[in-house]
Design a protein that fits this description.
Elements: H1 2-7, H2 14-17, H3 28-42, H4 52-73, H5 75-85, H6 100-119, H7 122-148, H8 154-183
Helix pairs in contact: 3-4, 4-5, 6-8, 7-8
Length: 186
Amino acid sequence: MWLWGKFCGMTDNPYELFELPLRYCIDKSVLRERLQKLQMATHPDRHVRDDAAARLQAANLSARINDAYQQLVDPVKRAEALARIRGVCLPNADSTVSDPVLLMQQMEAREKLASIERNKDIEALERFQDSILDEVQTVERQLDQLFEETVIDEDALHALLTRLRFLGKLKNECARVEAALDDGDW
């Protein structure tokens, strides 16, 4: 099979596996297309008549493909993978936020979401979600520009990743509130 050669000596570089340029912003339709192609070629069901070693290899490759896809499709994991590939050491993702401006923004955003939830205001929630999506896009553009640099500003990268993680958590909280509003859990 033509893909087996591709996987021999395969690194943990998801960009290499999916044959994508080393950029933060990626074409997600190309990513999905390549995922389907790779999954079709390595899916364990295609190897039921092979010996046990080949079936195990196909299962392992399929798992690696899925893991690489998850790294590329998730904005934070993609930035972390690209940083790792570029040789940038990142602090622990669970480290505390020390930026007072970001801390204040986090508190204000959570208070606003709590107010929206208390008031059961679906329109305000939709506006809030739109503002979060706008901010995510801004951070992603900044990450793309940062990764274009020859030398990456590690402090700026850490600050952008911290902000992106917060926005991701905030999006999840909004989804929880939206589900509660939709279900009438009041």
